[in-house]
Structures are given as structure tokens and as C-alpha cells.
Amino acid sequence: MEQKIKRKVVIDCDPGIDDSLALMLAVSSEELDIRGITIVCGNGPVDMGFGNAKKILNQMGRLDIPVFLGEERPLKRAYQDALDTHGADALGESFLPEVPGYENAQSAVDFLIAGAREGGLSIIALGPLTNLARMLERDREAFSMLEEIVSMGGSFRSHGNCSPVAEYNYWVDPDAAAAVYAAAGELGKEIAMVGLDVTRRIVLTPNVLSYMERMNPEIGGFIGRITKFYMDFHWEQEKLIGCVINDPLAVAYFLDRSLCGGIRAYTQVETGGLSAGQTIVDAAGFYRREPNALILTETNPPRFFKLFLSRVLKIGERELEWLDFLPAVSRGFGIPQMGGEFGQ
Fold it and tell me: For the segment 254-279, what is each residue's pLDDT rounded down to a tens digit?
């Protein structure tokens, strides 16, 4: 039997509830050769994110994967965490026990540069792009050697979640996002932007969570514990029964490109004023510039959940066909988008 070639990847993240779910999916997927996890300040301070990554790896029995501390603050702006969304520990106020040790002397940026120079390395960026921007500053040639960048961030037709027009990851460090997208354009690369247009359709509902807890009490119970705060937040803020889990879709898309579709367009990130963090997508080709991004605009929520649940719970996808008939999942029961009920 021919052995599948695993793709070398680093997951750059700011755990974070949905980052943690994304990590659970990634470490449960045999197609990925996860070289390391790099932490950036975002949902919580970088030290908190480092601790949370270790908690997730410990839960999944994958403490063989190294974790590296990254940037403690945005390039230029004052740091603004998202603990109001993710809880005081950035992990749903689950207050899981700390995993001692495991520190690496090498910084996240040094690790990214070294990995890129080895060749064949891709980045799944689930948080602000500060680590990648610092990598670009330090070693532009190494940045150019990255095979692929998939970034959860931004929005196109959807409204923002930190301002009317901006998504958190790009809003909290717009200068970093702007630099990375500009460099992609200059180097002839395209960033896959997994933005709110598609992630808002990925809603973990109480029904799906209940199924997870019954099918795999250990993993399902763990997910229930870390997402309760998140569900309560979504109800208070948006009267949504469930919670939007943005980051796992970026990992799922990296695993299966048929999960999402979109448009290729030149994209810039605004760095100041009321629209800081907004992604300006030149969908009509106004600037006549080559695309530097694939902007994802369509996704299939039932197929996402089949992939996510089958991997994380370790059950067959055929046992998950009921997801096709669960209205909240099959319709992508999320927050209405601009330009149509679900941005279609």
C-alpha cells in the first residue's frame, strides 16, 4: 500500500477556545506532519496561550509536538486581548491544571525561519499575523520559501466582530496583517483567507455537542467544558444558541480544499482609523493587480462537522449522516451576513 506523504506544517495560534478545537483537529489528522506550534499574543497573553497549547496537547496525548513562544505585543498598536470572549484563562474558564516544563529556548520567529529554510513548510495561522510579520522583517527570503499560508482572519461581505468592518485577528494587529498581505503580493504568493464569511457558518450547537459527549464522553466532555463560556457569550452578544468556532475551519480547509470555495483577488488590510483591520478585497479588479489572496466565500457546514467529529471523536463519517438533516447545521445556522441571509 502506497504511503501518503504528510505535509509539513506549523500552526501559529493564540489559544483561545476555537484555536484549541483547531489544534484538536490538527493533531488528530494523520495527513499533517506538525513540526511545531508557535504562540502569538491574541485572545490571551502569549504566556497564557503557551500554557493552553500544552493543556490541549496533554489532553490529546501529543506532548511530543514542541511549542514556541512568540510575540508579546502587536507591531505598533497597544495590545487588546479577547478574554471577554474566551474567559479569564482564555479557555472558557475551565481552569485546567497547568502542564509544567516544556519550554523551548528558541523563539517562535527563529523556529519559523529555520523551518522555512528547510523547505516545504506551510503555515496555518489561527491568530494575529504578528509572528509572520516579524519573520518577514527578519528574513524576507525565508518568508518567500514558505509553501503556503492559510490564515483565519478578515472578512469580505460579512460584518466584523471587533468593529463594523474588522475581524479580531486582523484588527488587533492590522500592521502585521497589512505587511504579510503586501509581501505576498510582491512575492507572487496567495494567502488563503478563511474569514468571517465562511467561519460564521460553522456553529457548534447544543445538539451537536450533546452527541459528542455521548459518543466520546472523554473528548466530548472536554469540549463541553471549554465551550460553555463561549456559548454563553454568543447568547449574550448575539442571541445565538451555540458558538461560532472559527479556527477549526482553517485546519479543515487545509486538509480538504473542497470544503470551501471563493474568489482570487488582490487584498489589502487597513491599518488606521475607524476601519483598522478591514480587509479591502478588490473583487472587481479595480487596481488591475495580480491576486495575492484566495478569499473564501462558500463552505459546507455538514461536511465540515463530519470531518471534525470523525477525526476528533475517532468515529466513522457514515455514523454522522444525520448531520445532513439537522437544520441548524445543514443551513449553516450562523449570524446573517451582508448581501444575503448567509452571504450567498
Answer: 999 999 999 999 999 999 999 999 99
Which amino acid belongs to residue 38? Answer: T
The answer to whether residues 70 and 107 touch, using CB atoms and an 8 Å cutoff, is: yes
What's the one-letter identity of residue 313?
Answer: L
Nearest to 30 by CA among 7, 48, 52, 49: 7
24: pLDDT strictly greater than 60: yes
Decide: 15 and 46 in contact? Cβ < 8 Å.
no
* Ordered alpha helix ranges (H), 92-216: 108-118, 130-138, 140-144, 168-172, 174-186, 196-199, 206-215
> Looking only at Cα atoms, what is the longest distance across the chain?
57
Q: Which helix (H) or strand (E) holds 280?
A: strand 279-282
Tens-digit pLDDT profile for residues 191-201: 999 999 999 99
What is the residue whose three cell numbers read 503586501? 182
Residue 228 C-alpha from the chain's centroid:
19
In terms of pTM, does the model score above 0.90? yes
Q: φ, ψ for residue 46 (rounded to 5)?
A: -65, -35
Asked if residues 257 and 31 have their Cβ atoms less than 8 Å apart, the reply is: no
Cell numbers at 216, concatenated: 466520546
Grid coordinates of 32: 499533517
Set of cell numbers at residue 190: 496567495
Whose cell is 487596481? That residue is 287
Q: How far apart are CA 277 and CA 131, in angstroms?
A: 17
Cis peptide upstream of residue 224 (ω within 30 degrees of 0): no
